[in-house]
Q: What sequence folds into this?
């Protein structure tokens, strides 16, 4: 950075930070720095006995996660969150998971103030996370959102460990996520909102919305969300002057040919909340609209959802109960999906004409939206997903205590587990994994397993006193199945929690094993027959010592049963 540039930046920062909020259509906008944000919530809590700001666990930045709670009656400082939330309709709002997208950080303050002045219904509780990614919020600057129109300074997407927290809801590498588990299960919210700002295409809407993908839900909640709640929100937002469109899931091209609904798998916030029967929304304001409009539309959405929820609390609770009952009766659960390109709704989409024009930078064509040429197109919206894989639920999963990182995460998600009282030999089904392939580059601190093929084998295995029996027929069933079934999109296996099983621990020396192998074939004619067959099918390998001995070793009792065996057994 040169001197002139540095002083220019100094003026920008002075204007944006020192001089307080800027106003007007062309102002870059202002989002409060983290300490100022927390101070504003403290003031709000101090002024209203119905509200409170709580510290709800650590974050990676070494500062606590803050949670603002407000209800229809005074909030006692001593009550645990569980008691506050009991018998209430609960809405949880998460802001600043990506602190560079601060529309919700700004919008939640006037939203909370308005409800506190107006008064929330007695049986309603709202919990607001002012800024979830504390480390990212503290890492403030003007540059990390290159394509976004303000605010002038904002936080950064990566947290204190450079993790994207909106990919961390299953692997839980961040302390923020473990703290989220605690507050989420204490509140057991009916509704969840995660506030964001989009990237991608240009169009005329300020607010776009991801409603948790319906085909992942149990029928009772799917119906409520897609037949009642979602249409009501679209209508109400239109009435408020902020017409919405489903999240424009389009990158590098225009939306004119249509697009698919976004599938938020369990690693994402609303994918995670859906596992626990909480209906999730992601507000995605359009990055090129003025910051003031983005904030106003986010606030309008929060009001819209709150008003609907306040009128339909019983229905939300009934459908959740019913979904839990439907889950408890299921024998199979879907664990992977793909978009159904044969089914589409038609959206009347308010976009702009676009053209490919020569770039001024190099000999290529660039995409340019023509803002002076608004267009409205009927476009297909592919929002149905088909299950591509499912798992048969066992009576029990058996999880050896040695895998304590997994045990810790299951416990933090309210999974009920029984421990074996003594060492026990159990006849069960083991899952063997074919050789896998992993990501070649790190992704969110992991090298996730990309391809998984499994084979089930009956086996008798010794488990130790203290190992865990997990019956999936319990409230956390969907979370259990989506993390424990190895092929599930976001299973703990895929996230590298069990990678040690892919390495063979014992081997043989060819010169010693030559005699043992000969003896094995002599004593076992069936094995000898199979070996002959292998030789005739693999003539090149059969001419060499090592592949031949390896084949016999791998088909002998000397070959370890642990190699590529998924440690979690299933008792059907
Ligand atoms: Zn985001």
A:
């Amino acid at each position: 950075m040169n001197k002139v540039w540095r002083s220019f930046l100094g003026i920008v920062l002075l204007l944006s930070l020192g001089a307080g909020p800027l106003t007007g259509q062309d102002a870059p906008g202002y989002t409060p720095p983290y300490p100022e944000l927390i101070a504003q919530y403290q003031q709000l809590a101090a002024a209203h006995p119905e509200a409170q700001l709580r510290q709800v666990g650590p974050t990676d930045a070494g500062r606590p996660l803050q949670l603002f709670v407000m209800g229809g009656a005074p909030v006692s400082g001593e009550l645990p969150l569980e008691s506050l939330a009991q018998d209430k309709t609960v809405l949880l709002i998460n802001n600043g998971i990506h602190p560079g997208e601060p529309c919700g950080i700004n919008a939640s303050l006037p939203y909370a103030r308005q409800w506190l002045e107006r008064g929330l219904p007695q049986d309603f509780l709202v919990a607001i996370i002012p800024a979830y990614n504390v480390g990212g919020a503290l890492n403030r600057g003007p540059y990390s959102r290159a394509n976004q129109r303000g605010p002038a300074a904002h936080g950064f997407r990566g947290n204190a460990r450079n993790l994207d927290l909106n990919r961390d809801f299953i692997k839980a590498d961040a302390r923020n996520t473990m703290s989220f588990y605690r507050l989420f299960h204490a509140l057991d919210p009916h509704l969840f909102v995660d506030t964001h700002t989009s990237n991608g295409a240009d169009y005329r809407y300020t607010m776009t919305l991801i409603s948790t993908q319906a085909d992942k839900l149990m029928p009772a909640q799917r119906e409520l969300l897609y037949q009642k709640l979602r249409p009501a929100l679209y209508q109400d937002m239109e009435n408020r002057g902020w017409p919405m469109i489903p999240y424009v899931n389009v990158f590098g091209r225009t939306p004119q040919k249509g697009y698919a609904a976004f599938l938020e798998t369990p690693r994402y916030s609303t994918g995670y909340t859906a596992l626990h029967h909480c209906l999730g929304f992601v507000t995605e304001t359009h990055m090129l609209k003025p910051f003031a409009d983005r904030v106003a539309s986010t606030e309008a959405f929060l009001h819209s959802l709150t008003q609907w929820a306040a009128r339909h609390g019983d229905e939300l609770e009934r459908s959740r109960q019913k979904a839990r009952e439907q889950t408890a009766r299921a024998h199979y659960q879907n664990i992977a999906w793909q978009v159904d390109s044969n089914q589409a709704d038609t959206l009347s989409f308010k976009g702009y004409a676009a053209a490919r024009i020569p770039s001024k930078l190099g000999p290529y064509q660039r995409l340019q939206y023509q803002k002076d040429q608004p267009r409205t197109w009927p476009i297909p919206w592919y929002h149905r997903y088909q299950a591509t894989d499912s798992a048969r639920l066992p009576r029990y999963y058996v999880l050896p205590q040695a895998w304590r990182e997994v045990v810790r995460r299951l416990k933090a998600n309210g999974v009920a587990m029984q421990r074996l009282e003594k060492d026990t030999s159990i006849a069960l089904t083991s899952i063997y994994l074919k050789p896998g392939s992993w990501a070649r580059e790190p992704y969110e601190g992991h090298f996730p397993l990309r391809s998984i093929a499994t084979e089930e084998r009956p086996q008798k295995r010794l488990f130790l006193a203290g190992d865990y029996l997990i019956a999936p027929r319990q409230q956390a069933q969907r979370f259990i199945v989506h993390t424990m079934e190895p092929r599930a999109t976001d299973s703990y296996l895929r996230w590298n929690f069990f990678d040690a099983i892919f390495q063979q621990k014992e081997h043989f020396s060819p010169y010693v094993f030559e005699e043992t192998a000969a003896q094995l074939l002599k004593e076992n004619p069936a094995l000898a027959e199979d070996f002959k067959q292998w030789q005739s099918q693999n003539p090149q390998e059969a001419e060499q010592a090592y592949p031949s001995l390896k084949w016999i070793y791998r088909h002998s009792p000397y070959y370890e049963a642990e190699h590529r065996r998924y440690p979690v057994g299933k008792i059907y």
Remarks:
- Residues 1-23 have pLDDT under 50 and may be disordered.
- Residues 283 and 377 are 23 Å apart (CA to CA).
- The first helix runs from residue 3 to 18.
- Residues 392-496 form one domain.
